[in-house]
Amino acid sequence: MPKRNVKKRVKMSKFERLIYTFAIVLAVSAPITIVFSKATLSQINFEVEKKKREISEQTKTNESLSMKINELASLDKIQEVAKNEGLSYNNDNIKTVEEK
């Protein structure tokens, strides 16, 4: 009768199984974590650029409105509005207030 090849199974200890399990979990979860963090970073960068664009647009609007205020507050414009409303310029009625 021929001899059978009997393979002996090597038993792993609990510690070895724990180490192998940890290595497999780490090998699977690391790429997923990296992809997730890159996607989150990309989304945050997109939002930052969007906010920068909004800030730039609001700054331009503010500058435009400041120029409009200066234009409307000019002496010529005030005199024109006063004349249209029937008011007149009287230098004797002007009082100067000085700050200390």
SSE layout and pairings?
Layout (H helix, E strand, L loop, with lengths): L13 H59 L2 H10 L16
Protein described:
It contains two helices and no strands. The chain is mainly alpha-helical and 100 residues long. The chain has one domain (20-89). The longest helix has 59 residues, at 14-72. The radius of gyration is 40 Å and the shape is rod-shaped. The relative contact order is 0.04. The model has no long low-confidence stretch (mean pLDDT 88).
Multimeric state of these chains? single chain
Spatial gap, N to C terminus: 123 Å
Low-confidence stretches: none
Proportion in β-strands: under 5%
Structural class: mainly alpha
Number of helices: 2
What is the C-alpha radius of gyration, as a whole number of Å? 40 Å
Biggest beta sheet attributes: none
- Helix coverage percent: 55-70%
Question: What is the structure about, briefly put?
Answer:
This protein is mainly alpha-helical and 100 residues long. It has two helices and no strands.
Notable traits:
mainly alpha, 69% helix, 100 residues
